[in-house]
What we know:
Largest sheet: 8 strands, mixed
Organism: Chrysophaeum taylorii
GO molecular function: acyltransferase activity, transferring groups other than amino-acyl groups; endopeptidase activity
Protein name: N-acetyltransferase domain-containing protein
Pfam family, one: Acetyltransf_7
Strand content: 5-15%
Keywords: Membrane, Transmembrane, Transmembrane helix
Amino acid sequence: xxxxxxxxxxxxxxxxxxxxxxxxxxRTRLQSKVEEATLVSVAREASDFEAxxxxxxxxFPSSKASxxxxxxxxxxxxxxxxxxxxxxxxxxxxxxxxxRRTVACAQLVPCLVREEACDDVDFSRRRAFWVQYVCVDASxxxxxxxxxxxxxxxxxxxxxxxxxxxxxxxxWLAVKDDNGPALTLYDRLGFDAVEGTRRGxxxxxxxxxxxxxxxxxxxxxxxxxxxxxxAGGPWGVVARSLSDSLLFAGLGxxxxxxxxxxxxxxxxxxxxxxxxxxxxxxxxxxADVGVGLAAAIASQLFKNRQxxxxxxxxxxxxxxxxxxxxxxxxxxxxxxxxxxxxLAPLFFYLLPGVxxxxxxxxxxxLNGLHRIIVGRADHIQPLVSVVAAAxxxxxxxxxxxxxxxxxxxxxxxxxxxxxxxxxxxxFPDGLVFGLLLLLTNSRLVAPVVAHLATNFYWTLVExxxxxxxxxxxxxxxxxxxxxxxRNPLPSSSSSSSSSSAAAPExxx
Length: 508
């Protein structure tokens, strides 16, 4: 006995986990069943998609081969009721060894699962993979080709989970409720059926760990799908954030033209714009930029903000803080991009919000209130000007701080204490930005520069904290936040428009 053990050790034998050995044996049996066919490969040429489209037309004769080819090339071309395509897909094919004819195929589509596929909000709108177009030529069925393709899809999705640093990934599919062989196969492969029949289909799901992928296997585009990032990338987040900023800026401009311009500038908008931006000439504007930067640096040094906990712990304890940083998480593509890669999109992400806030709080509220009071009391202007400036400064800083407590939800623990913390954090900033406006002859340049520099600095700090934290834990926090913010209605098959197509069923 000891001689046998010593011989195994000396020959370099390494024991492997039982699960890995079983998976390898299963794949070996599947490969041995694939008679007269090569191993699974990834479609890359136009001819590969055309051949797969012709095979799909044989399995699903309700549509032409050209239509199937179009969807195989671009899954988003199908108005699918169960999912929204979220990235480039992978098409796996099996060809005959001699004739090189495509005899089987399966498509793996990165997606966002729709509520029509699952009533559970824990899964709807989650980034996952959808398996469709699992087709096997009628003459090649019952030889393990379908199982081999599904096994490849699992490993392809697993590779994406590993590259994304995700703890697991869900595979979804939809099968017609009368397709008994396919239902039996997926049940044997470990897929669980979602409760109920949806549009004549049974929706099934399986969770795959990130350790199934093998380095030597062919990889498709889906294997590079980031399961934790947001759709649209940094510039997509910039575009989505513009709507709120433009609305707020529009409100500020309306107030300036409707209230301040008639009362202070005698209906002369050009004079008002010149007064708020460039009064004093170019040298004054350049000086305002320097003053704004200096004020931002000094105020942040005075604050000396300290982080005593990791960002994940802070977010879990304070969901309002996480809500404020949700768009930033999307901007960083789920912490895949470091701060140095985001300087341009970050600038255009922050600038509209800063401009709209300064236009409203300092341009309209502070400057308008101060000028209106002063203009109505010319006979005691020096005294009234000081009092009006102090009142307008405190008032504008107060509403600036109160606006930021909207992040705190009523159902949060210690909601009142968190609101007070937000006021303590933002009220001093409002005072600094307001003082800059008053000290620079009511020009907006200095407060805009100080506000932008402050936000830019702390945003870079937050991005670096994202990058240092555990990415999967951060993604779980924001997923939980989105579920709390969402209040979906129960979905049913009758609630969807009849024009939406269901997922292609599987054929064996």
